[in-house]
Design goal:
The structure is a single chain. By secondary structure, this protein is an alpha+beta fold. The protein contains 7 helices and 14 strands. The strands form 3 sheets. The protein has a 6-stranded antiparallel beta sheet with strand order 1-2-3-6-5-4. Strands 7-8-9-11-12-14 form a 6-stranded mixed beta sheet. The longest helix has 16 residues, at 134-149. The chain is elongated. The N and C termini lie far apart (64 Å).
């Protein structure tokens, strides 16, 4: 039986919850198949556990530590598929994943550079990712950090699709981030985003970033927030909800702040609300409304 057929057979007929050896591989380069009710996977052993996790479509690559297979515990690098109807097609991808290559060179490269292996597969499959850019999340966390260090009790609310990204008892902040070098255009995604909440003030934070090893990453700011008393469990839950669970490469991408301004959203701020329309409401059958604001003519206060 060749490797692909073995993997298919294990996916279809193998035992649930049990790592099953792929015997067609050399003994010095073992790999296993796994099967659960809602996913199938292959895995290879790694010497040292380092958190790593990436997701694309219905496929995930990640590390796990101290996984019991037979009578032995292993640190493993696993490739999972959550589209059970495509498990036979997934088997071909798994074959390339577990194949050690001549003298084990492919296995060595996979273990040493899983990010590179993953990137190549995503490029080949045509990755059209809907994930938010890391700098978007970074901008929001930096504003949370600023408010926390100012003695306020901020909540990172944007990840829960709240109207505004950062909420305090007496104020709210909407955060817009960009890596474009020029321009001040920001997109407002609803009529309510630029409407101050009842009894609160509202501001818009505009941050301009560039990639730089001298900058800060999501993990850098997250660690600072935890150090200064932000709820670590809630923060990690929110990051996972944003597709940035521990081990994601994007959490370590560093950006330097080139510009950071805070704009009060008051009667002088250019915004569109219900009162901008006849009878103070959207026209009939209009269910979604976005618009673009140019901040170049609006007065804002620099935060750096």
């Amino acid at each position: 039986m060749d490797i692909v057929e073995r993997i298919k057979n294990n996916f279809n007929k193998g035992f649930f919850g049990k790592g099953m050896l792929i015997p067609e591989l050399p003994e010095e380069f073992p790999a296993w198949t796994f099967k659960q009710n809602d996913w199938v996977a292959v895995a290879v052993p790694i010497n040292t556990y380092v958190p790593f996790s990436e997701v694309f479509s219905q496929v995930r690559i990640s590390t796990s530590k101290r996984v019991c297979i037979g009578d032995t515990e292993y640190n493993i690098l696993m490739l999972q598929c959550f589209a059970m109807g495509s498990r036979n097609e997934f088997a071909a991808m798994c074959k390339q994943f577990v194949d050690p290559g001549p003298d084990g060179q492919l296995r060595k490269k996979l273990i040493e550079e899983p990010t590179e292996w993953w990137k190549n597969w995503k490029d080949m499959l045509g990755n059209v990712s809907s994930d938010r850019a890391p700098y978007d999340i970074l901008g929001e966390l930096i504003v949370v950090e600023q408010q926390l260090l100012a003695g306020k009790n901020p909540i990172w609310a944007g990840i829960d699709h709240a109207t505004n990204d950062v909420e305090m008892d007496d104020s709210s902040i909407e955060v817009k981030s960009t890596v474009t070098r020029y321009g001040y255009e920001v997109t407002i995604s609803s009529l309510y985003q630029m409407r101050p909440p009842e009894g609160k003030s509202l501001s818009l934070a505009f941050l301009r970033f560039e990639k730089s090893v001298l900058g800060r990453s999501i993990d850098d700011v997250a660690n600072s927030l935890k150090t200064h008393g932000y709820d670590a469990i809630a923060l990690e839950r929110a990051l996972t909800k944003a597709g940035l669970e521990e081990g994601r490469v994007a959490r370590n991408q560093k950006y330097k702040i080139l510009e950071w301004k805070l704009y009060p959203v008051d009667e002088t701020f250019p915004s569109v609300t219900e009162s901008s329309f006849k009878n103070d409401r959207l026209p009939p059958n209009i269910v979604r409304f976005t618009y673009t604001v140019d901040l170049s003519g609006v007065t804002g206060q620099s935060q750096i």
